[in-house]
Design a protein that fits this description.
With 366 residues, the protein is an alpha/beta fold. The protein folds into 2 domains: 178 residues, 3-Layer(aba) Sandwich (Rossmann fold); 171 residues, RecF/RecN/SMC, N-terminal domain (Glutathione S-transferase Yfyf (Class Pi), Chain A, domain 2), CATH 1.20.1050. Helices cover 42% and strands 25% of the residues. The strands form 3 sheets. The chain has a 6-stranded antiparallel beta sheet, covered by helices on one side. A hairpin with a 2-residue loop joins β6 and β7. α3 packs across α7, α4 packs across α6 and α4 packs across α9.
Length: 366
């Protein structure tokens, strides 16, 4: 899978940008604030329709304008298609080959993209909800049905929490409707649990070898933590029913896949509790690279890889080890503030661009 080119109209600090990319390495360098991350943010939005930096889409529109457009051509399995994401004050629309796609779930998963940026290095330290968000994004790229099931689960969860509060306020102990909602929640939850379990199992097939190839020692595994693990419908229903009274009192559903988490285990130690900053960073990078293998195995394609500000996170040797792992069929985008830190052998393989205040110019490095 390759992104051949991208066109940005009134996106962030770009008024109108047309740029074509190389098939393997694409390196963008420039000062902080020049627009490097804005460009890769646009690539990410083209794939997943949302930013990895902000949740308010309106902030993506260039100041003084009412609409922003990200458009690109993607070649997959020797077939090229046009993709567009249009953002305005009225909302967001997506198009494939100039035809509007009614549901985002029918758009997402067509373009597969893996992103590593400095914010990701804190993934082990943040709340479980952030790690679940990451899981949801990555799994949705593999199967569009996952997004639909997840939306249904969240809808039932909201209804169930509302009903729990109404039961408590009204002093009502009738649990017949609560049982119906609970059964539906479990039904969707078990499906999500399987998707997540399968995803983690696939990651674990590759992650230790990748970690060793880059950092030369350590056994890294991901542990999936869920109240749904190894339980069927009847066991889960019993667990819920035992909590009915407490749930009514607080108006919240106490168990379910909305409490799931993952743990990074290095040499049998939980990195959140025992890992150094370097080990945590290394674990996240290995996780991201393992995703490339998983997508390739399941979908028989290579995703697009974005390494944002990688040279500020790792030394030259480790970066070299990462790039050695990359098949030349993996189109890769790298941003950096210091082009002098990039090995000359890497530069010779790459298409290099200088970014300066909303303008991008290709440079030759022999």
């Amino acid at each position: 899978m390759k992104i051949d080119n991208i066109n940005l109209v009134n996106f962030r600090n770009y008024e109108n940008l047309d740029i074509s990319f190389g098939n393997f390495l694409n390196i963008f360098y420039g000062k902080n604030g020049s627009g490097k991350t804005n460009l890769i943010e646009a690539i990410y939005i083209l794939a997943l329709t949302k930013s990895f930096r902000i949740s308010n889409d309106k902030l993506l529109i260039r100041k003084g304008n009412i609409k922003s457009k990200v458009r690109g051509e993607i070649t997959k399995n020797n077939e090229t298609s046009k993709y567009s994401v249009i953002i305005s004050d009225e909302g967001k629309t997506v198009e494939i080959n100039d035809t509007k796609v009614d549901k985002i779930s029918n758009y997402v998963s067509r373009i597969n993209i893996i992103l590593f940026n400095p914010v990701d290095t804190r993934l082990i330290d943040v709340t479980p909800s952030e790690r679940r968000k990451m899981l949801n994004i990555e799994i949705s790229q593999l199967n569009k049905e996952y997004l639909i099931i997840l939306a249904n689960y969240q809808r039932i969860l909201k209804q169930r929490n509302f009903y729990l509060r109404s039961l408590y306020v009204n002093g009502n102990n009738d649990t017949n409707y609560l049982n119906i909602l609970t059964n539906k929640l479990i039904e969707y939850g078990l499906l999500i649990n399987k998707y997540r379990k399968d995803f983690i199992e696939n990651i674990n097939k590759f992650i230790t070898e990748i970690y060793n190839d880059i950092f030369k020692s350590g056994e890294l595994k991901i542990k999936y933590v869920s109240s749904y693990n190894n339980k069927n419908m009847s066991k889960l229903l019993k667990s819920y029913q035992q909590n009915y009274k407490k749930e009514m009192e607080i108006g919240k559903t106490l168990i379910g896949i909305h409490h799931d988490d993952i743990e990074f285990i290095l040499d049998n130690n939980n990195l959140k509790e025992w890992g150094s900053e370097g080990q945590r960073k290394n674990a996240i990078i290995s996780f991201k690279l393992a995703e490339i293998k998983v997508i390739n195995e399941i979908k028989k394609i290579n995703p697009i890889l974005i390494l944002d500000d990688l040279f500020s996170e790792l030394d030259k040797e480790k970066i070299g080890n990462i790039l050695k792992l990359l098949d030349e069929n993996v189109q890769t985008f790298i941003t950096t503030t210091e082009i002098n830190k990039v090995d000359k052998k890497i530069l010779k393989k790459a298409k290099v661009f200088k970014v300066d205040n909303g303008t991008i110019k290709e440079e030759k490095h022999e």
